[in-house]
């Protein structure tokens, strides 16, 4: 018969593992299971997952020495012994303290670290036993006798966990800046699996390093008054929704008199006039391999941040000799939609020929379907390609779109003829990236 008694954490100060903590533990085990793509050993219990979470989440975790004094059941004592030994191995490992700067007081990265550790340990344990996963639960018995190999496994697993958590932290920071106002803790909790998989994309760390510290310029273009927009000075009027806080200190009679005469001091609030999407065409032909494609992807993410800051739609489409299906983001999109675009940018590898004309035509057709508002197409390429300036000029006019060309260490005289702006990038540095972001 199953024991329904609530167990305690082996971490000092955590106490009973109640429903909320059990839910968190089940989420960690579910994520570890999906990452491992196989059944986890029985030794990885829900309570152990909770203990591991607090090892990563608390600044200075320590063992609760009194936890085992009232336990009589042999099976429960063995399970507890393994938890204590694993947590003790974690706390005493020097590798843990390289991970903790990314996880302390951060529930998202602590869950990522916990799931990653359990998945890594389960794979290592499975490789140690000839019988496969059906025999792994014998490790609990070994642990109760003091399996010295556990500390070595924990150290090895933490080496791999460090990379997962670092990239996950960088990805979360980027997502927070992109999804300002939408990136709540709950939204990130719902997207932990996607963040974890994004962290394991081989190229995403390079892109995140390049984008770190890049500041997005203030929105450009025309503005219109909007009661819930951002503050742009003060004015006189009677709109109480925009009332300046200083007016609240006025005597009530005087306040009513100013209101009747439309003489109250108000905040002047504006919003950027609605514009069409920012549409990035990204060359992935063979000549873009290496630092070029990494730099271009970083620029694309920066332009995504700019589109969100201006409440504009965003498209990204890779092309080589063909134009690949685009990914898009609407101003009202969720955190998971942003993660999908980042994953798309991270996965694509450079290779193939170059057909710039087909890519521009595809973008124009997408924009026409979008509604034909004034849009910006940013073409990032290093390719030499003969195009028909007259045909593409007509397509751009029909789509009400401006073409901004970014040539990476190259030149294309035909594109220069039809581009609203044309820029050549010689050095793939942050300084050049800032010029591109402020270019459109």
In brief, what are we looking at here?
By secondary structure, the protein is α/β, with parallel strands linked by helices.
Spatial order of the strands forming the largest sheet: 5-4-3-6-7-8
Tell me the number of helical segments per DSSP (H or I, 4 or more residues long). Answer: 17
- Give the biggest beta sheet: 6 strands, mixed
Order of helices and strands: HHHHHHHHHHEHEEHEEHHEHEHEH
- What is the total domain count? 3
**Distance linking N and C termini:** 68 Å
Average pLDDT taken over every residue: 82
**What portion of the residues fall into strands of 2 or more residues?**
5-15%
- Find the structural class using helix and strand composition: alpha/beta
What's the alpha carbon Rg, rounded to whole Å? 28 Å
Number of strands: 8
Residue share in helix: 40-55%
Segments where pLDDT lies below 50 for 5+ residues? 130-137, 140-146, 181-186
Shape descriptor reads flat
Question: Can you describe this structure?
Answer:
The structure is a single chain. The chain is α/β, with parallel strands linked by helices. The chain folds into three domains: 182 residues; 50 residues, no CATH class; 160 residues, Rossmann fold, CATH 3.40.50.410. 49% of the residues lie in helices and 13% in strands. A six-stranded mixed β-sheet has the order 5-4-3-6-7-8, sandwiched between helices. Strands 1-2 form a two-stranded antiparallel ribbon. Helix 2 crosses helix 5, helix 3 packs across helix 7 and helix 5 packs antiparallel against helix 7. The longest helix is centred in the middle third of the chain and has 30 residues.
